[in-house]
């Protein structure tokens, strides 16, 4: 007979001597939800919630099974009851099936699975994994010291005898091998370029395309950007889901984003790629954080870096099995390389008496089979990983005028390192040979092919250098972060100049249309108004930039619609409005003070009055107060109300970096179209109310129709343009990536076309909403080459952050 979930949960909580509030604090589940569960007031229970409560109560395996059985409505036998009755402890029963999800959560899970499958299918095709066939990826069991005990991997109870789990297989059976692991936790080890990323892509696709789909949606996360000292794993996963799938920013009935609900409901299978790319001083913290979880996951890493983290943490990834990728064999090379050449055989190829034309790779393969000299040793050491074989294929099989026999020249390539560097250095020139880039799966062709390989290599080198940080190196090449490598003072100067130009042009345009001022006076007023207001805006930007620690402005996950909804403001609309109003009030007040100074100074100069005249000083102070209040209240009101017009983006809006850029461009355009007239009306008509309230206190104040419309229009147009350029991701892209960096010669004038072209040529890959270099070794090589050519850049250093005394 099935136990009642509420009664059982209350009994287990009482046994743990915990109150509902204490359980809520430990688990993160609200007190209201716990009360509903214990009282039977809700039947829509989720396994993820029950697992959180079980963790908070510190339950053993048997009690966890009782909870799971109560949730699913099935009977729970004691662990291993059948075999223990025969005097032989056995493995614990398999965990109960996940309860079905319905409604919005099921729809979100299905949409995510569809989008993940579509993306990685496209990426596999882009990388030409199946041309002519996938390179073999094989593995062996990881060393016992780098995996957990078999009893823990199989989640056995006390005294359980582990069964033998066969983890052997190859690329074609990766999903089947993973499903053999009872805990669902796997570590994939391998040296650089050994095929870990390709293996994870195949695992994800096989799990998604299985006739019996995995209950969790497998999602690949590049874990190298995670800082466990500042961000919890759950929060980081949610942030990455929101970045790559903005439609998951929609709110559930409980108020949380769909991304948070999917993670909390245990509907995501994290595939964490690149543990070795986490900063050295943070790997122990990262492993400790992963060991604090029990969720199924897959982790990839180079062996040495993972082993160091295991030694530092005194434990491997708990409950995790492990495999280690092995090198390619000579037979693998002999099967693969000749089939990558489809052109005319070279002079060094032979038919071996068969009458069949030989391959340009014959000389290399013969040396590998029979050679004993330095050339054989170097080649045998280099051509052992899929990465180096792909580089060799690109450089020789796909470049008609290159002969792989030159790899045997020990004068040019006397060492393994020189051969490595040759293949890495030749990749960019090979993919940038003069040809039109291929169309993508949708039939689109990159807008502008870049055939100048030397220039392309310099620009890719700058992008690789841009990813360098003082204590770590990132892999995610995000279009909205391309200006991050510029000093903070340079970025601030760029946005000050953008604001100066915007407000000056707005002043001149509105003055020509609305005021009868002479041209010279109008030009003078605009020349004063722009810099004064621009500097004031720069102060607002610098303050905001410092408050967020210099972090880049994230892309908008929303779009604007004129159909305002209560849900747009979230669960706490008054709080949302108050926060937006406060930000707008401060920024607008500073802008108003700047405009007041410029207006007073301009009129004083036009009238020939000294700026030190007491009347001018008094008028300036009054104008600063009045315009500060007018601009501040107007900005606060507009920004607060604009939150009601925001809704999450569509499902496919962030399918690629280019589509995310287009989505943000459209959002920024709508923001300007809404902000400009809203600011104008709020300043013009709101000014009447404020002037009326201050009339008796400040003396006679003048706020005529012409002045109000002029100041309102200038503030509306110039303020909206300044905001869009400085406080949106698209604005940062325009000011820094489209103007500043091209002027400095670091990027082309159309960086989006350049990035897209580099992706279609194979130099970059797409991971969600960002680009990455084809391989981290290529990124390192290009970055080093760039710094070697530009001596004004200091060599990159990677100093691990302090971890205290432990």
UniProtKB/TrEMBL annotation:
Gene3D superfamilies: lambda repressor-like DNA-binding domains (1.10.260.40), P-loop containing nucleotide triphosphate hydrolases (3.40.50.300). Residues 9-64 form the HTH cro/C1-type domain. InterPro entries: Cro/C1-type_HTH (IPR001387), Lambda_DNA-bd_dom_sf (IPR010982), NACHT_NTPase (IPR007111), P-loop_NTPase (IPR027417). Residues 75-103 are annotated as: Disordered. Residues 75-85 have a biased composition (Low complexity). GO terms for molecular function: DNA binding. SMART domains: HTH_XRE (SM00530). Pfam families: HTH_31, NACHT. Signal peptide: none annotated. Keywords: Membrane, Transmembrane, Transmembrane helix. The chain crosses the membrane at residues 494-516, 522-544, 581-601, 621-645, 672-690, 710-736. This is XRE family transcriptional regulator. Residues 90-100 have a biased composition (Pro residues). PROSITE patterns: HTH_CROC1, NACHT. Residues 184-278 form the NACHT domain.
